[in-house]
Amino acid sequence: MVVKVNRYKCGYCGACVSVCPTGAIELIETWIVVDDTCNNCGICSRICPVGALEVST
Amino acid sequence: MFQDMSGWSAGGLNLKERYDVVVVGAGPAGSTIAKTIASKGLDVLLIEKRQQIGDPVRCAEGVNKEYISNFLQPDPAWISAEVKGSRIYAPNGKMVEMGEELSGVEVGYVLERKIFDRALAMEAARAGAQVMVKTRATGLLINNSYVTGVKVQYMGKNYDIQCDIVIGADGVESKIGRWAGIDTTIKPGGLCSCMQYLITDIDVDPDFCEFYLGTRIAPSGYIWVFPKGKNKANVGIGISGFLPKNKRVVDLLDDFVKKKYPNGKIIELIYGGVPACGTIERTVSNGLILVGDAARQSDPLTGGGIFNSIWAGDIAGKVAVKAIKRADVSAKFLQEYERKWRAEIGKNIDTSLIVKNRFLSLNDNDMNTLADSLENIDLRTASLLGLLWSLFKTNKKLLWDLRSIFKDIKEIKGVDFDDIESIN
Question: What is the ipTM of this complex?
Fold first, then answer.
């Protein structure tokens, strides 16, 4: 997994899920999971209102 | 078939193997559909992945009073405040005041969504729908290119549920559409990234919703202050697309709040993404319908989505009932839903998208110019289109891109519209 979710910042709003081009992110009740279809594009980390997602490069 | 039968009917969980319709997501769209379908005597399951319907709220809670009253009997229990209109502040502080009618889809009532969503779900239940909370869709059952059911998970156990139609009302984070092969991915510029505080002990005019514009306070977006009764308001920000690196929506909102309400007390913090991308290619498939934020039906300009969700939900519910009675749930039959919502809701969304795209490219000077041009115009009774026309007439160069939305229009209430020919 290349996306790191800071669960202490995340407010489980699902914004990142909607912009993920590969559908790698899912909001399960109150937490985010990222599967291995993630292509490291970084869009999720840019749109997150609070910066809870970090994409390692 | 059921993957795990143990605990099947434990704790009042009388999940059946088959329903006529399964609705995924108990927001305004899902509950409206569930109610519409159940009231016609069909077997409906309404599932909500959260433990509580209506919570956490991801909404500024503004809705047009007149529109919503077409579908629901207003109930003081879910109305937090009633406003007379809105005030828009240009970057230079110039204020434009508009009546409620003109303010569009977002102004009239400020709701208490926690109670509102719950009330809608209760109405669905009362009509005969089975409601299940903490129940998440994990996939679709697909057979011969038809969606024939949905996989759900409740308390860590998986169940396969068959049905004629699955309704994806699963919000901005929708997966239902993708699972059925519909591309619902929002391009970054098409998602409005939002954050909101509920602030109390502040001086706020309970009669007006306020909007603050300016590339410094809210680049590619705006800040809103929606009163929730006296001395209390939803203060939030929505930004389309990317901010510069190391700048977050939260930082911009904090800047505004510190300056404007230094002594306010924050009693709630929410964030969320609002689809502001305009309509998507399709919202039906064989045995499947998408509605609300899942169908990207929120208004791209205001971000308002409650009314569109309820309106589209009502259409979807009626079409679903018809389809099941005719035993034809093909995408071809469900096109009726597609056609109907696009004819009205879709058209409004298209207009809003044109306006949004134009306004996104304006700088602060442009916005100040536009606000100044409304100086002597009475905006208390005009429509949103009327406001745009007033702006357009005096700022043709700046707003030339908007001309297409005035085509085919012969009359706009309350506005001098005699020189419409000049653009056609």
Answer: 0.95
